[in-house]
Amino acid sequence: xxxxxxxxxxxxxxxxxxxxxxxxxxxxxxxxxxxxxxxxxxxxxxxxxxxxxxxxxxxxxxxxxxxxxxxxxxxxxxxxxxxxxxxxxxxxxxxxxxxxxxxxxxxxxxxxxxxx
Length: 116
Known about the structure:
Elements: H1 2-14, E1 39-43, H2 49-54, H3 56-63, E2 67-72, E3 77-82, H4 88-99, E4 104-109
Antiparallel strand pairs: 1-3, 1-4, 2-3
């Protein structure tokens, strides 16, 4: 009886699709629905939490906004957020600016991923 439950569970999970990534912000911020004020950032040197916190002032100065460290993530990424709440256009501008920052591998909005 126990094995039937496992098989049914496995069959149910096999039919689920993998989560899909949320796309980057749209070019037209008027239609952009902002779901977060947080960013996932990974640095080229895969720095630890202390090094990431130490680089916040320089990264914020480059982007033109003060940044706050939120938490570390797996894969040597870090969650940051702007110190003040931004409108969608300003958030998109911050995101695009940080993507060009020296020493940054990638930046993406910290959004909940859901199965499709």
